């Protein structure tokens, strides 16, 4: 089994900036691809030096996130012998936005995310493959929930998937979602649909590690710095319509008829101290999906991949063993 070389919390300030970022910079291939409705979505691709490669990871980020937040994950996959393909979802980062407000996430239909992922894979990822190594899916939070839906949509594409803290059910009053579903449903059919939902607001730069979902200060600080430096990464609040779509995602992905259509082996990570999503939702998905397994990483916040040395060691051992089996 390949062993992860975790960057410890003590090493992070030096190794991440002097080793990881320069290495990714020289490997990075970027661009825009044309999605549905002729909109442009940003992508970043990385190739491993390991030959033959063990596979290709399609990595989908979470709600309000951006690609640089996952650079440490990209690095670990490359070191383990996997190519990585990252897609920036619409409404995030440098990808197309449905509204002019750079801080507002508004997507009128969650199925656009799925169609974007599908087109990206079939028009860019698969045509550029130069080997027979398998594709694997990695998704965090909203990206994890979208992964569950996509595995059912394209059941033969991914033999295995890793869903990290997947957003299968949102905790009440969390993720700044402080409104009930009936009100969200009603508001999404009015001119309010493309405006901030209650509890949502533009980026102000006023946030702290203590109130974040990161497990270590050094990784939170890296994220906070690149967000502060670039307005493209300051997507901060959701519209009424977007909240509605998130609720729908969490309902549909746990539907028994959807779960029954997933033949892939699925490794689901649950954070022991998750402040955003429920373990119950993840357990329901796993119980209804034939080849899914739940692993809890104790004493970790929602973003397990930013956790303590102990948490990251367990996390990456589980991931790499699962993919290698």
Side by side, the strands of the main sheet go 1-2-4-3-6-7-9-10
Find the CATH topology: Rossmann fold
Mean pLDDT, to the nearest integer, reads 95
* The number of domains: 1
Relevant CATH superfamily: Alpha/Beta hydrolase fold, catalytic domain
Can you walk through the features of this model?
α4 crosses α7. The model has no long low-confidence stretch (mean pLDDT about 95). Strands 1-2-4-3-6-7-9-10 form an eight-stranded mixed beta sheet, sandwiched between helices. It has one domain (about 10-325): Alpha/Beta hydrolase fold, catalytic domain (Rossmann fold). β1 (about 30-35) and β2 form a beta hairpin. It has helices spanning about 10-25, 70-80, 110-125, 140-155, 180-185, 215-230, 240-250, 255-260, 280-290, 310-325, and strands at about 30-35, 40-45, 55-60, 80-85, 105, 135-140, 160-165, 235-240, 265-270, 290-295. The chain is α/β, with parallel strands linked by helices.
